[in-house]
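Pair request: fold both.
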Amino acid sequence: MSELQLFVANLVNMAVLLILVGLFARKRAHLCWSFTIYLAAILVGNSLVLFWPATFYTRWFYILKESVYNIVTLCLAAEMTYRVFRAFPGALARARVMLAPMLALITIGVISVPTGIDYVDFVTRYHPQIQTGVIWLLSATAVLAVWYNIPLNRIHRGILLGMSSYLIVFATLSNAARSFGYERTRELLSAVDSYAYLALVAWWAVRAWRSDETAEVTAVRAQELAPKPA
């Protein structure tokens, strides 16, 4: 691991830790527990690689931790779908019909990854396919929320927008690696992916800590402007 990679990885860890602390300090962790678990998994995985690189900065551990991330991300997408639509039974019923087959296909993709898979095959084929499926699931959730005019809180909106945007970048880089050769493009694409993920967690950290004062002020002003009962 180069000094630059080490620096970026440490920044990612700091940002993830800030997000976790912010979620609990602002009492927002309950809004999506699988998101909290996802962040904890990222923090643990990165820390193992940073503190014990001889043991964990290896291809076998990369496949293991990314497989765990895939499972947690799938749970995150499923929980987000439920939390967004649960207060709207009609929309929830239609969302289940549309999104359940997609969720099932992604689950099959996660389960079907063969044991002892080759590292390059995992990086350029199986992993991007699963991530692409998650992109479609999160994007479909966001589109349905807009279609049914369902209000999203700041955390749910940030998860949907942030995760979808990053996974699009990741899938694009994986396709580039498959097209131009993984070994030739590995360092460049890895660097771009690291910066994209750093930008994502930094943005999440800002949203996790941002206060709701603006919303509170708006609500107070709305009450003040409301007509008084006779």
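--- second member of the pair ---
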Amino acid sequence: MKRIWCRIFGGVLVSIAVFLISCGGMKAAYNKDAAIPVLQKDVLAKLTGRVEISQSLIILERSTPENREASRTYLVEVFNKMGLEGRRHTYRENGENVYCLLSATEPSNEYIILGAHFDSVRDCPGANDNATGVAVVLGAAQTLKQLPKRSKNIYFVLFDEEERGMQGSRSFAQKMVDDKINVVSVHTIDQMGWDNDGDRAIELEVPYEEAFKLYTKAVQNAGFSITIHQTRETGSDHSSFRRLNFKAVGLTEEYRNGDTTPYIHKNTDGYDTVNFEYMLMATKIVIEAMKLLIQ
């Protein structure tokens, strides 16, 4: 595994500064939590090898056991810094999900799962697939933790080994069954950083019955006017939960409608290809959807 032992941080800091300045021209909805884009750029930079993920360590992909372990350690730390207890769900040797629980502010036996896979294929930085999904989940966690009232519990889960037959999400879904957790709905994010035609459309993959209505309202509450497509795409983590009869939906860019990253599973799926404005919009929509479910 290639490791690069030095990298200039200045470019990243400048990029963050430029991004924050540019946010002034966005819709007001983007400015409600200025910390989200900072967090998301940091997550993308560290997971894709743009900067060190830990002292003197840069990972250029997230497929090997060593690099996935470095990713897990970092992601647990991110949760902990938010004031959420980062946990590990070990389901086999070298197979381990990262998750945390945001408890309801009132007694509740209802749970929502919001997740994304953190691994990549071999020799691929995995920026869009799926560091963007990870960044959406973490951005949502950061905001939802601050709500004064939450009627349901939320699991934020970062799945291992989606690229190997969705093993991480399958195992976490089975854990929910085994632990007799009352999961009312599951929402997974996979590839949310490409919008070449600028229409900002999103797709809901095999949405459960109420999901389209939920996300339509969430888009409105976030202050956007975009198209929401519904597709029959089953090739991501939402399928792991549906097979066990959970209500689940996947969220993505226009994967089935012809506006998705051309760099998927290539060594060119890097940090610089991500549309951060589009990803931030999607994060705001997910946050509004979660609010509708828990407030």
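Observation on the second member. Strands lie at 87-92, 95-102, 111-117, 153-159, 183-189, 202-205, 228-231, 248-252.
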